[in-house]
Design brief:
The protein has one domain. Helix content is 73%, strand content 0%. The chain has two helices and no strands. It has helices spanning 10-35, 40-68. The longest helix has 29 residues, at 40-68.
């Protein structure tokens, strides 16, 4: 990737924020799926959203690792 970034950079903050919200939402989907019991199409949609948010969080983690690796902060 381009230049190294520090944890104080806007791009790093933005990715952390996206990751946090994706992980938070992924946990809430279990409740949404329970609320939709009996509506298989809705449950399927909720699970799809949950998976997409989980994938989004993983991708943020990868990008953060790449952006911060030169600062000894990569995982």
């Amino acid at each position: 990737m381009g230049s190294a970034h520090t944890p104080a950079d806007d791009v790093v903050y933005d990715l952390v924020s996206i990751q946090y919200h994706a992980l938070q939402a992924a946990q809430l989907y279990d409740q949404y799926a329970r609320d939709a019991e009996g509506h298989d199409d809705v449950v399927q949609f909720v699970r799809q959203c949950q998976e997409q948010d989980a994938q989004r969080a993983v991708r943020c983690h990868e990008l953060l690792r790449d952006l911060t690796q030169d600062h000894g902060l990569g995982g």
